[in-house]
Amino acid sequence: MATARFGFHASHEQFPPSELLALIQDAEGAGFDCGMSSDHFRPWGAAQGHSGFAWSWLGAAMARTGLPLGVISAPGYRYHPAILAQGAATLAEMFPGRFWLALGSGQRLNEDITGLAWPERRERNARLRECAGIVRALLAGERVSHYGRVTVVDAKLYSRPAEPPPLLGAAVTEATAEEVGAWADGLLTVSGEPDQMRKVIEAFRRGGGQGKRLVVQVGLNWAPTEEEALAGAHEQWRTNVLGGDVNWELRTPEQFDIATRFVKPEDMRESVWISSDPRWHVARLAELVELGFDEIQLHQVGRNQRAFIEIFGREVLPALRR
Question: pLDDT tens for residues 101-144?
Fold first, then answer.
């Protein structure tokens, strides 16, 4: 069935980087095809409690495995776009053909530590587009000076890969997907209802993304029983169920905990794929294959990571590949 690759999502908000390194190695051994890393300065909530530096971890993970890996970062705030370009160029030079970088408009939770004013969505998207152009120019070997929403003075990358890494655009709404279609080599989005995801894909293609790479991050939770699956998702990931612009505007883990204090375990099914039945997960993931995703990154939101890796490696991934 599957022509897509299935990846293991390394959630730095939830685990120390040393444990994530062991987990990505376990995932490779269990048959996962690839991986993806989050990039946070703060966790979403107190129950998660971690936030290692993703770029240090990526070098170690790529050295310890043979997996292709990607990361999503926000340029123009805590990361100057020239520094992101340098980091991407270094990993792509060391591990040819194995690294991709997705650029997103960012979340206040991570980005306002610099003291910069946090802009509204339209301005964030404009800043993203401007920074993406700078990153792409630097990866192409150009000498860049730029004076706009960010400033770059006579920058040039001296260590570059033979081929620049793919530069993806992150989007969860149709409007943003259409915007990133103009400059990105591919789309990174998140799981949702098939009809809504189809609209996001169509918007990306309409904006210039026709024929380009499609990657999706899936928030799911498996456990031996339904009760454990619900409880694990609620304990670790209820801070991520807020709709609208709230996810991008709250600034501390404590604010996310307060905002979600009335979320019940049953409410988690609206935003996380929850089931104790591996066959249920096979069916839902098959829908993403049918939608045309090239890469499907699986984020097990509960803490039972090794049990998830074992059961999905034994039952879910082989069923999808049959």
Answer: 999 999 999 999 999 999 999 999 999 999 999 999 999 999 99
Looking at this protein, which amino acid is placed at residue 293?
F
The two beta strands, 144-147 and 151-155, are antiparallel
- Cut 0.90: pTM above it: yes
Q: Where are the alpha helices (DSSP H) in the chain?
A: 17-30, 54-64, 81-94, 108-111, 121-139, 174-180, 194-204, 226-237, 246-249, 253-259, 278-291, 305-311, 317-321
Cα(207)–Cα(210) distance, rounded to whole angstroms?
8
Burial class (CB in 10 A: 0-12, 13-18, 19+), 25: middle
Structure-derived torsion over alpha carbons of residues 209, 214, 242, 72, reported in degrees to the nearest 10: -90
Q: Compute CA distances 213 → 52, 184, 221, 261, whole Å.
A: 28, 9, 26, 38
Q: How many CB atoms lie within 10 A of CB 97?
A: 12
Token pair for 163: 């081929």
* Helical axes 54-64 vs 17-30, angle rounded to 10°: 40
Tokens (6 digits) for 289:
């294959």
Q: pLDDT tens digits for 174-190?
A: 999 999 999 999 999 99
Which among 318, 322, 319, 321 is positioned nearest to 30, based on CA atoms?
318
